[in-house]
Structures are given as structure tokens and as C-alpha cells.
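Retro notes
What went well: the complex prediction finally ran end to end.
Inputs used:
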Amino acid sequence: MANLKLSHIYKVYENGHKAVNDFCIDIADQEFIVFVGPSGCGKSTTLRMIAGLETITAGDLFIGDTLVNDMEPKDRDIAMVFQSYALYPHMTVYENMAFGLRNRKMPEEEIKKRVLKAAKMLDIEEYLDRQPKAMSGGQRQRVALGRALVRDPKVFLLDEPLSNLDAKLRAAMRTEITALHKSLKTTFIYVTHDQVEAMTMGTRIVVMKLGYVQQIDTPMNLYNEPYNKFVAGFIGSPQMNFFDVTLKREGDTVTVRFVNGDEVKLPYEKVCKIHEEYLRGDRTVTFGIRPEHVSLNKEGNGLKLIVTNVERLGNETIVYGKLGDALGEFTLKDEGKNIVIKVVDRDDINPDDIVYAVPNPEKVHFFDAVTEITLMNKIPLFNTIHAKVAGDKMELQGHSVALPEAYKKVITGKEITLEIPPFAIVEGKDFELKVSRIEKVDDKNLAYLENGDSYLFALVSDEVKAGDIYHFALANEKINLYENGKEILPAVNDEETMLGTFSKTEVKENGDRVLHFFYNIGDYTIETAPENGYKINSIDGNNCYKYDYKYAVNRDNIRIVGEGEPGLAGEVVGYVNYGNIRFAQVKAAGEQLLIRVSDDFKADKVRLAFDAKDVSVYSTRIDMKLC
Ligand code: ADP
């Protein structure tokens, strides 16, 4: 078994350059994982940390169940294949392949068996007596693969192994490496900047940019459901087309309006997950459509364009065009309005033709113009509901429900807006709506609840079916509350964060000097496991005892304890009652914390306690989780 786990891995180089940020992935045994992204995005650094060729600044790396952060490369049971082959020029192919095994003092007979087996798999048996210089690039890369193969490693790491080969050989080797992965039944991690390699080889792909993971998904999910504009543009060739547009909903139709005034109509159903705020026609969003998802007509409706170039590739034709400018005129100056279209079996399109492009409504993408994140999240982030306030009640969805005290305190007028995440719609008795359909998203069930002329999205249990009437209530504390467009009460998040310091004591136990490490938050001192202490010390050196740290604890793990018990002293300054849940506002360690309490809880002072194992530690100097 060779599953791997990368948990909050960071790499900060000596010069302060942060090359990898918070890299997290669980890799199952026998997966073929590809790290892909432009040069400098941190792919090789991550691979080299897995190999043990680069130290890990923060985070945990497990191979199988073993934490290997500090394990020597040779003990990790992995083999690495480099772009440069890294063969010994004066040795024969056989010797190159045998070298590592001889170093491990393996019996010659076993070495021979392994080398011959690998040579056969890679079809290089006849070159075993040759030196690398008498071989082609492709053959040398096979030898490099062979040298990894003979070690029978748990994990194969390959760093751009094909980039020195010509296009045809690269394509052939892609197939061979995929076949090798199938027959070896081991875990492969493969680094490339080439999205075609990634798409054709990976069972899952990690797309990276500037040291950050952008998306981890199967090739088809990356293609069909890119999380952001970067992934959308990086995966697929020719690249996805992007345009600035506005979206306006009228009944069942959404009009996509381009800067030049051209319009495309889409059925609302296709874009119903887009938040209503973006559908009012007053907000610029980025529209994305792949070249292969546009059809071309000689006349009729669609986006009018002038053909600037045509590439006939035999089976398919790439048409380059320009949309008209703001007046609908064609000028060749404006870069923003280029469009690329891929059509099959069309030889009737020529430069200077005026044609009409129609995007396939099933294949459209929309991104926020600023954050560049998709507006079509598989699970929408929020439902927006407007409510009227009347005395102690709020009226929404045709129901009148008690206004939570917490809301009452901040509301000044008669109208409020609730931003309700799907997970804040919980089973209950306050409301009911008909389930239009259920969609499986990973392991969750997303219900489309019929809500007038749009949907309310909720996460529901397996028992809920399309056609049911769903009875629900709201988890009031998980809702963002707005009045006149201004947020007046943010949702209560899951964590509390406090500042504190870090310390150690040295004691003699049975004649040995033993170190104990502590988190110090206000007057509360909790001992943490030695491995956490060593981690913090190894990252920050002895300055760690001078620095402040950010300590985060899940709210559910904070307890109120008795007077005499160890804990963080806090002063209760008020209460927030959400109806379904009540919190005490506690001033402690210079922060105001929200601590869950029962309905009748009353106190002026409290002591708060939590377990060290539930505490996450973050640096205050650099955005990094330490443990
Ligand atoms: P990729 O493999 O995606 O091309 P790398 O992992 O090689 O990217 O590099 C990631 C970033 O880290 C780059 O900005 C690179 O310049 C920087 N980097 C790589 N090695 C070092 C080093 N030894 N010292 C400082 N910065 C480095």
C-alpha cells in the first residue's frame, strides 16, 4: 500500500520566498496524480519535498501511515525520474540500472533478474551494453525509468520526464508511462507544465498557480467545471474564450449582453445556480466558452463576427474571428474581442467572412470579474431571501416566524435580507417547499426547492426525494444579515482565534532532561504534545519563544469549566440569542469570543478550557499553519 497524505504543506525558501502554500491532498494507493501549472508555480518543489530532496517548512507528509518529514530520501521507498535523465555517462545501461541496487548491497543474481525484467518491460533489452551517449533521448528516458523500476518502489515521482523529447515521441511515451502505471499498480506522481500530458495521464490533476493549489479534480471535472478562470483557461486547447458581459434575467430567460451590445439568450434553468445579484444586468461578469462549444452559422442570430484567420487541421477547423466593437463595427485594433472557434467538418468558412457564433447553452461558464471564481458553484454559496420585519416577527416565504433576539438588536428598519448558505437550511417545522429535484454533489444531496420563480438550495438527507414537500427551519446563526445593502450581522463562523505565546520547560525525569511545551493564552497555559513543540521550534528556531502565535479552536471544542479548574479567565459582557442557539459574549485574552451556552446560563465571569489537540497554531508573521 502506498497512499500519501499531504497535510497543510508549506515551503518557504531560505531567501524568504514562499513557493508552496497550504498544500493538502489525500492520494490513494495506485492513483496517477499529476501536478500541473505554469513554470514557477511550485510543482517541482512539492515533488522534491515528497522525495525528501527538499525540507518541508511546515505541514505533515505521510507515506502510508508513516510521518516522513524527517526521513532520509533513501528510506522513503520512492523512486524519482528526472527530466534530465541523470544517467552516468561512463556506465552501460545495465550498470546504470544496477547502480542503486548495488549500493544497497543486493545480491548480483537478484539485481540481474530485476534489470532484465525492467529492460523487457521498457523494450530496451538490446541496449543493455550500450552507454547512454550512444542512445536517443527517448531511449535514455527509458533507462531512467528502468532505473526507478528496478527498485520496485511504493511511489514513483516523475518530474517533467518527457519535456526533452520531440512531440511525436512524447505522445508515444505518454501512452507507455500510462501502461506502465497500470501494470505496476503503484502510486505515480507526475509533474508537468503541459496540460495535454496532465489530461491524458492523470486519474486526478492538481492545478497550481503561484504556489497555491487552484483545484484538485479528475480531468473531465476540470474541463467541465473549472473552479476559477485560471483553471478554465489553463485546461483545454485552444484556450477558453473570455468576454466581459452583463446578465439580465427576465422570466425564464437570461440575456448575456456583450460590451458591443450583442446579445445571447440562455434558458434560466441553465444558470439558476448563479446568485440573483449577478442577474440584474448591472454587474460585469466574465463569460467563458470553449472554442469547441460554439457553432457557426452563415446567417441568423448569434454573435456577429468577422473571420480573421482559418486553420484547417483536417478533421477540425480553427476559426479566428473578431466581434464588432462598441458600435458593432469591425475594427482590428481591440484585443479584447478576439474569439476562437473550433468546428468539425466545415470547409465553407474563409477569412473576411461575416458569420454568427452561437454558444452551446449547456457549456457556458461565468466567473466573478474580480475574484475570478466561478459563479456556478456545484453547491451555491448562498440563497438570498428578503424578509419583512413586523414587531417580533419576520415574514418570509409566506410565513411569519419569531425574529431571533440577535437579529432584533441590530435591525433598525422594516426590511432585511438574509444570505442563507444551503447548509443553514435544516430540517424543521417553520417552512415548507416542494422539492423540484435532487442533485448528487460528491457525497452530498443538493435539493432544488421550488421558491416562486427561482430555487432555494438546501443540503438534505438521503431520504428526501424529488416531489416531496420539504419541511425546514433556518439555522439563524449561520446566516449573514443585511439591511439596506449593508451587512448588519455576520454569520457566526466555526472557529475562535486568540493570540498567545509559546514556551517550554526543561525538567529532569529519571535522570533525563525532558522538554515540555506550552501554549499560553491569557492566563491559560496548556501543555501540547512534544511533536507540536518540536515543529514550532524547527520552523521559527529559538525565536519561537519570543513570537506571538494565533491559536484557533473550533467553537464546539471550547468548554466552560469550574472556578478552580485550569482555564482562560473571561468576563461575560452579554448574550446573543439566535432562538435555536445562544452564545455568551466573553472577553478573554484581549478578544471577544462567542461561547455556546444553554438558555438559562447566567454568569459574570467564566473560565474557558479546551484541549491542546484541538488547537491549530498559525504564525503571526507569515500566513502559515504551523500545526
Ligand atoms: P515549478 O516546478 O512549478 O516550475 P518550482 O517548484 O521549481 O516551480 O519553483 C517554485 C518557486 O520557487 C519559483 O518561484 C522558484 O523561483 C522558487 N524557487 C525554487 N527553488 C528555489 C530555491 N532553492 N531558493 C529560492 N527560491 C526557489
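What we learned: The pocket of adenosine-5'-diphosphate is lined by residues 13, 15, 17, 19, 37, 39-45 (CB under 6 Å).
What to try next: split runs per interface for comparison.
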